[in-house]
Amino acid sequence: MEERQISVLLEQAEVQRRLANHKGAIELVQKALAIDPTHAHAHAALAFCLLDARRLPAAGIEIRTALALEGNDTYIHYVAAVVMTAERKLDDAWAHALIALDEGHGDAITHVVAAEIQVLKGDNARAKELLLEALELEADNCDALTELARLELNAGNRAAAEEHIELALKADPSDRDAHVVAGYVALAKGDDAAAEQHARFVLNQESTHEAGLKLFTAVKAKRSPLLGVWWRWNTWVSLRDDRRQIALLIGTFVIARILIIVTDELGYETLSQFLSYGWLGFCAYTWFAPELFRKWLENELGTVKLDPDY
User: Fold this and answer.
1) How confident is the model at residue 169 (pLDDT cuts 50, 70, 90)?
2) Of 223, 258, 288, which residue is a domain's last?
3) Which of 5, 120, 149, 208 has the most CB atoms around its CB within 10 Å?
4) Least confident window among 54-68, 96-110, 120-134
5) What integer pLDDT is reported at residue 301 of this predicted model?
6) Is 230 in the same domain as 310?
């Protein structure tokens, strides 16, 4: 009787998780754990829900609890691979993905997670192999088609990316990740209106969807050359680690100062003044552009329905 109750609660939690109702999903899994605190699958399900709610440390605790309770379960190893990928513990994540794949129960979604790990490890060729294997298992798997489209787009194969993402949206027209990739494919084609439609669809479904917000921001950056320069500069810098960011910013300042001094010493006073004012203008721009960009996005996102319980 208790096992049946737990199964029903976990099924309901999965439905809420897919609807992006993170709070509701977590509460349902917690009810299941109140019935049986040692239920390994419930701990794994809670890890998934916490990860979706961006509570990564808590998700890590729950999945390790699940592994301690049941270390031979394929589903738990699959969830462990997902959580540890988010933690960027890629070697550990890959080890769990291999266990899930080697058990003979490796379904399409497990192959997709394994492919995502390989992308992060820099092995796109192996990732593509895994995605093709996923499609052999399930030809219309939306996640596999979406990741394959993302991979092709990043490789510059826009036509292939467009073909795969159309199939993904046909398989599941409501999939948020598929709409995000479709938006980037549209941006690559220069169709920012279509890209914005995809972004708005995602944000209307889940107003805090990180990838959807990034897509929406990319659309706005493309439409505004002035603010788009700041966004691209900020994105380019933020892709580096902290040390490289500091080195890049200091290096930019040093180079600018050297150019100003050298041109002044060589008698190019007009050019020196131009560089000096240009540097001051750049500093001022980086000061006010973020605030303008933020306000612009707030105004644009005013039509998106927000979740008051988030």
Assistant:
1) very high
2) 223
3) 149
4) 96-110
5) 61
6) yes
**Distance in angstroms (rounded) separating the CA atoms of residues 289 and 75:** 46
Look up tokens 């979706």; give the residue.
52
Q: Which amino acid is at 282?
A: F
Which segment, 36-45, 209-218, 230-239, 268-277, is predicted with the most confidence on average?
Answer: 36-45
Length of the chain: 310
Regarding whether 239 and 198 lie in a shared domain, the answer is no
Helix (H) or strand (E) holding 217: helix 210-223
In this structure, what are the phi and psi dihedrals at residue 38, rounded to the nearest 5 degrees?
-105, 15
Together in a domain, 194 and 267 = no
- In one-letter notation, the amino acid at residue 188 is A
* 253/92 Cα distance (integer angstroms): 40
The two counts, helices (H) then strands (E), for the chain are 16, 0
In a domain, 16, yes or no: no
Check whether residue 240 and residue 291 sit in a common domain. yes
Q: Is residue 37 part of a domain?
A: no
Convert 158-169 to b/e letters by CB count within 10 Å (16 or more is b): eeebbbbbebbb
pTM: 0.71
Phi-psi region of 34 (alpha: psi -120 to 50; beta: other; left: phi over 0): alpha
E strand or H helix that includes residue 158: helix 158-171
Total domains in the fold of the chain: 2
Tokens at residue 49, please?
């829900």
- For residues 237 and 293, membership in a common domain is answered with yes
Whether 169 is covered by a domain: the verdict is yes
pLDDT at 230 over 70: no
In the block, which residue shows the tokens 């439409």?
223
**C-alpha 205: how far from chain center:** 16
> Residue 154 sits in which domain range?
140-223
